[in-house]
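User: Can you help me understand a structure? I only have the sequence.
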Amino acid sequence: MYHFFVNPSCIQEKKAVIEGADARHISKVLRMREGEKLIINTGGDWEYLCVIEKIQKDRVYLEIKEENEDVRELPNRIVLFQALPKLDKMDFIIQKAVELGVSEIVPVITNRVVVKLDAKKTLQRFERWNAIAKSAAQQSKRNIIPYVNKPLDFKNVLEYTKDFKHKLIPYELERRKGRLDIFLKKISEDEDIAVFIGPEGGFEESEVEAAIDAGFNSLMLGKRILRTETAGLAVLSAIMLYLDA
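Assistant: Let's start by predicting it. Here is the structure, written out as tokens:
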């Protein structure tokens, strides 16, 4: 069943309305009809089973049939700090990270990032990335829409994460062989988790050392080298399965 987010002000007693792009998507793309059912959520634990009463150009009017509390979020805030990859890889990373339960995604400019974004491109990407996050949240029936932040540089990431309880930075040249399972066992409910993933060329050694000095745990993700678009999703998958157990 299709799932949409609405502003709380769009719900009045047993009636609700979906407006704008989502309304057009319902009528023009999904081609839903009056009498069909869908689910709406206001960004919390409660969701509403609705029946479509009327479809207009930019509005879909609904009757609420059921209200149910359904908590689908992980018990911890997880923020993915992803060094900007080339081409459209960031779109894929955002979509899958949202499906895996991340709370926020922060694009990062590290020394080996080759992507160059001016102010116009940054705004365009920012809007696109948040649209992708919303779509992925609806598809995976999240209770919230994870936020995609504007890009930060490396030093600002260290400042941003200074109060995080758990901080992880996978590094392919890590010699101490830290283990992800040991890292996971230290996590308690409601503690913030930061996952910092490098670009295609990897982190510079000086960056990893600076991150460790700032409280990050450096570890390898097995014996194989993972691409930047794979590494973060591997970590997030492990965290999701551990916290959902």
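Now, to help you interpret it: The radius of gyration is 20 Å. Residues 10 and 17 are 5 Å apart (CA to CA). Let me know which part you'd like to focus on.
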